[in-house]
Design brief:
The chain has about 400 residues and is an all-beta fold. Helices cover about 5% and strands about 60% of the residues. The protein has a single domain, classed as Porin (Beta Barrel), CATH 2.40.160.
Length: about 400
Amino acid sequence: MAVGALVLALAGAGETQAQVADVDVRTTVFSEPSPDSEMTVLNPSVTPWDALSVHAGYEADIVSGASEPTKSGGISPDIVSHASVTDVRHVASGGITLRRKETTLSVTYGYGTESDYRSQSISVSGATEFLKRNTRLELSYSRGFDQVCNVNYADSLSPTLRPRLDSSTGCFTSADDRKTDDVDLDSFQGAWTQSWTPVLTTQLVLTGGLQHGFLGNPYRAVVIGSGGQLAQEHHPENRARGAAALRMRYYIKGMDTAIGLGVRGYSDTWDVLSQTYELEAERYILKWLRLLVRGRYYSQTGALFWSDDYTGGEPKYGPRGQYWTGDRELSPLSSYLLGGRVLMNFHGRSGDRVIGMFLDMDASFGLDVIKTNLDEFTWAGGNVSDTFATVASVGLGASF
């Protein structure tokens, strides 16, 4: 607490009238209530301060449920087995933001750790506003240095003979049967936000990414032989990704409602193509109370090497050969999302603060429902049950 107080004191020393600190606490709960493969992810996060030019934060993912360690082909007699998953991911971040008139420059560092994965990232972003602040341009770059735990097999061992990782025991230690594989991540983004009129704003966002290293799931095995032969999931070591998104927001004065529209297209070198369409409406019910409802449709093609059955013979849904995957996120699929948010904002002033303490205070509650349609992905030829999920969120923010 003494260190935090010192940082706040130093950050606020240059401008005595500035806001002292923000506190922002958020929690998201993802639930996939499948009778065969239930999964729950709890994601609490805290931003203890954002004062002038210094910001810091912490978040965690608490995962519990069941996963499918074996992906069986449609003609395989094997059935999909389940494994219990319990893990906690901790992520701490901090950075500095410099502001000068209409220009902002930020540098942020983040470090994350869990039992079988470690991540480090550094990101740099710059933004400027001009034309009476109606135009905003932003560029950002992020570099990730990740490490994933894996079975200590020789690199020369044929991918068809590589076993899957059975547990995180011994990861990031000197254990003889564990090793660490690198994952390098480069991300680029450019955004143009334009206010055309007092009620109409658009945003164009271009993103790109490069991934290199171990890009599969070390825990997942795939049946690649008609006799039930298993091999660890095997993905290409390189992937380039690109996306373009266009969003529009229009305020209808007579209804006191803002309407948002969005469309996004995506493509990568694994031959995955996707499209996303979004619609949302936000309305002030009271001066301090807003209601937001939204819907989203998403669809994608499968990866070039995707197949629901790698056990041999002529391909039914895709090529057999150099690579194989059990990841349903690389199969052809579509999904629908419906959700809403309740947002509350309270503003105080000097001598009359909210609850006697805060200059500003906000709270939010949200719930999203997601339904996924899997066109080809099955469990040993059978229908998948974990295609319905809910995401609940709660947030609380305050300014002192």
